[in-house]
Amino acid sequence: MRDNDSAIAIDRIAVDTARAPELPAAPAAASAAPGALLAALGVAAFSLTFPATAWALEGMGPWTVVMLRSVLAAALAGGCLLVLRVRVPERRHWAGIAVVAGGVVLGFPLLTTLALQTSTTSHAAVVVGLLPLTTAAFSAVRTGARPSRTFWIASLAGAAVVIAFAVQQSGGAPSSGDLFLFAALLVCAAGYTEGGRLARHLPGWQVIGWALVLALPLTVTGAALALNTEPLRLTAHALGGLLWLAFGSQFLGLVVWYRGMAAIGVSKASQLQLAQPLLTLVWSVALLGEHLPPAAPVAAVAVLVCIAVTQRTRG
Asked: Above 60 in pLDDT, residue 17?
């Protein structure tokens, strides 16, 4: 409730300030900068997801990784909801929360983890680099957002860079894991879009928190089954990767990500993710010892230019 009261107070201050003719643009500037920073922190957290998954897979099966990360994240989120005595969301919000649970809590982690059984983290990262454009398209359909023509041109250019980079890495023949990755794009974009919409009505941490709690019956059951059927070897890498996936990627990263999307809009926030595959490439070299493709610096510059353009247009 404190978060909602604070939001109401901020809205009142923004209205009063907007009435002053000498400071007409202050509220927008004040809200955009922190929102972009929060979204960028979310991207930084997500960029470690694939390397952390690769670490976790060193000692666990894919189903064990996905279910345990969600159960641990739900324990943290549920604890926060209980301690802060957060009210249960209104009935009208639960359909959206279910979409977040299906796309972000279950669908994307499962599909990408299965893909990493046959794909390298660097290959998976560049394919999932199409997520910003997919999210912007879902946002346009779901929320009625109409980004400018320049926004779409820059987004398509960024996506083209990502596709070219992926094709160059795979030698023109997509791997079997790409089907999982493309499916992951769709479910994650739906979850991001719905989560960003809900974050305008609920604090971002509550959106992902309730989604994790909603999925808990499935994830607890799945974790129990997976632990009984898949091998388990708790190495330092496996445990460290699992803990980051649960607390960094699955909860804290999504908290700041949804708050950022609520502040600057789903379309604009999604374009910051164009930098995510390149950050993941850096982590894959530093943490996994993978070879960095020669085209990476060129792709990095091109993608960052696209990000700069999309952030200067109206999304």
From this structure: no
